[in-house]
Amino acid sequence: MAGKVASRQAILPLSERMKPYVSVRQMMTLRQIEVIRAVMVTGTIGGAARLLNVSAPGISRLVKYTEKSLGIRFFQRQSGRYFPTPEAQSIFEQVNGVYKKVDDLTEIISKIGQGAPSELRIGSMPSIAQVMVPRAIEGVRRRYPDLRIDINVLKIEEAFDYLLLDRGDCVVMSYRLNHAGLDFLPLASGELFCIVPSGHELAGRKQVSATDIVGYPLIGIDPTDPYGRILAGLFSRKKLDYDITIRARFGTTVCALVKAGLGIAVIDEFTVADGGFPGVEMLRISEPTKFDTYIAVKRGAVLSPQMAHFIRCLRSEMQSPGREREKLRRPSSRHGKKSSGRVRRAVNS
User: Fold this and answer.
1) Are residues 322 and 158 in contact, defined by beta-carbon separation less than 8 angstroms?
2) Pick from 167, 220, 173, 194: which is nearest to 281 by CA?
3) Burial of residue 169 (number of CB atoms within 10 Å: 0-12, 13-18, 19+)
4) Mean pLDDT of the region 119-132
5) DSSP assignment, residue 339?
6) What is the mean pLDDT of residues 13-41?
7) Cβ neighbours around 276 below 10 Å, total
8) Smallest Cα–Cα separation from 304: which of 169, 192, 174, 109?
9) CA 147 – CA 115 distance, rounded (Å)
10) Is the pLDDT of residue 197 over 70?
11) Is residue 329 a contact partner of residue 311, using CB atoms and an 8 Å limit?
12) What is 10-40 written as a DSSP string?
């Protein structure tokens, strides 16, 4: 007899055979969530029915069925009105959250269906975010006037999570590194410059050398920073001892310290492009200080038309002769002399 029972069990579906051993947890459907929330918001069955444009008896039946199937009483009924029970308060908070997510999803689907743009989420290192990114955004806005744009100024260590955890679409980087989860698209080449306060004894020079720079109190960034490594290499190749009397994390802070007359500094050209920091003079360094910049994206990501246009606009701004790089290099150009220097173009991706 036992063998026959065992054989009959063997031919039953797995879900049927497991019923004596497991309990099936009831889950709320999106329709139940919608109805429970409607009753919670309006306080009556009739109000929920009008809100959802359905019959009141159907709402009442679904509320009772949901309470019975879940073993939870959602409402207390008093004088024809429905009030949340104390034990259901935390559930209602979650229901509101789920409903908002569904509402957001519906809105996004609707926008996509209508061909409307969504949101462009951009991260950037501070040096490029100061002048270059806003100029590129101006070009994006002209083409996509209704596009929502979210810009985050990131530290280097924040950039990877920003992309890998899908918090953003791209990050403007001041250097490239090997990472299995990221792709790097070239933007433009740049150089480091010496900056001094207006009226400083070096301000009238066309260019300065590493030897000139170490003769003054130096304001700098961390040697582990990409620009900091270039600066450290500049002095080490000349076997020059240098002392950073004030260390600051971001280029804008360095510029403010220089403007205050607390020292001179070496900084990237994009931070102070187009006279982005009045009161500070920009001097060319005779030794090579070239660096490359990139757009980092999640590996395998498909660029949206909006992001592709942003990258084109940013690359154009960072490579543009209109920035008059030579004018910024030569203090003498302030007196009306025009530069004939050509701008070095970075390789397009």
Assistant:
1) no
2) 194
3) buried
4) 92
5) P
6) 65
7) 18
8) 169
9) 12
10) yes
11) no
12) HHS-HHHHHTTT--PPP---HHHHHHHHHHH
Residue 206 region by backbone torsions, left for phi larger than 0, else alpha for psi between -120 and 50, else beta: alpha
The pLDDT tens digits of the residues spanning 304-331 come to 999 999 999 999 999 874 454 444 444 4
Using CA atoms, how far apart are residues 285 and 208, in angstroms rounded to an integer?
A: 5
Contacts of 111 (CB under 8 A, 6+ apart): 117, 118
Give strand pairing partners of 148: 119
**Phi, psi at 271, each rounded to 5°:** -65, -35
Mean pLDDT over 167-196 rounds to 91
- In 154-290, DSSP assigns E strands to 170-173, 182-190, 192-197, 207-208, 218-220, 244-247, 264-268, 280-285
What is the C-alpha separation between 349 and 347, in angstroms, rounded? Answer: 6
DSSP-assigned states of every residue in 143-180? H-TT-EEEEEE--HHHHHHHHHTTS-SEEEESS----T
Which residue type does 184 have?
A: F
Contact assessment for residue 280 and residue 255, using Cβ atoms and an 8 Å cutoff: yes
Q: Beta strands 218-220 and 148-153: pairing type?
A: unpaired
Distance CA 273, CA 326 (A): 11
The secondary structure of the chain in percent helix, strand, coil, rounded to multiples of 5, reads 45, 20, 35
Q: Which of 14, 34, 30 is nearest to 22 (CA)?
A: 14
Contact 295, 171 (CB under 8 A): yes
CA distances from 224 to 84, 181, 232, 339 (A): 57, 23, 9, 35
Distances (CA, A) of 128 to 24, 212, 314: 55, 27, 10
AA identity, residue 238: K
DSSP strand pairing (148-153 vs 170-173): unpaired
Cβ–Cβ < 8 Å for 227, 192:
yes
| pTM score over 0.70 | no
247-263 pLDDT, tens digit per residue, is 888 888 999 999 999 99
The amino acid that residue 248 corresponds to is: A
Amino acid at 67: E
